[in-house]
Design brief:
The chain is an alpha+beta fold. It has a single domain, classed as Cupredoxins -  blue copper proteins (Immunoglobulin-like), CATH 2.60.40.420. It is built from one helix and eight strands, in the order αββββββββ. Strands 2-1-3-6 form a four-stranded mixed sheet, with no helix packed on it. A four-stranded antiparallel sheet has the order 5-4-7-8, with no helix packed on it. β7 and β8 form a beta hairpin.
């Protein structure tokens, strides 16, 4: 009986050591282990914290700390969080290593930037999303 219990314990420990196949594997960062940019309100360049965010080349999430829904899109159109409910967290978005500018498509005056992986400031903002409120 003891040998059966010992074999079962060893087998279960071996399973626990195997890498997972879900969203928590190193290849797909989960929202809880990924840096976050906080949405703090509808206040132009003060709508996001930190802003600019030091996450060029990294996967990030947006955490909605406001009382209304938001949808964050990179100005070049390559990243889209889809709608984030109040208190919710977006899906993972990978920021360009060269930095980026982004806005809320529901509230276009909410604007933010991400510094380049090298630490350089975000690229110059061009287009209709650069004025803020």
């Amino acid at each position: 009986m003891r040998s059966h219990l010992l074999n079962a314990s060893v087998w279960l420990l071996g399973l626990a050591a195997l890498p997972g196949c879900g969203g928590n594997s190193p290849m797909t960062p989960s929202p809880t282990s990924t840096p976050a940019i906080n949405i703090v309100g509808r206040n132009g360049m003060q709508a996001f914290s930190p802003n600019p965010a030091p996450f060029g080349g990294q996967a990030v999430v947006f955490k909605n700390n406001d009382s209304v829904a938001h949808r964050i899109i990179l100005n070049d159109g390559n990243g889209d969080t889809e709608e984030i409910a109040p208190g919710g967290t977006s899906r993972v978005v990978t920021m360009p290593a060269s930095g980026a500018n982004y806005h809320c498509s529901i509230h276009p005056g909410m604007i933010g930037g991400v510094t380049a992986a090298t630490g350089a400031p975000p690229p110059p903002c061009t287009g209709s999303y650069c004025d803020g409120y």
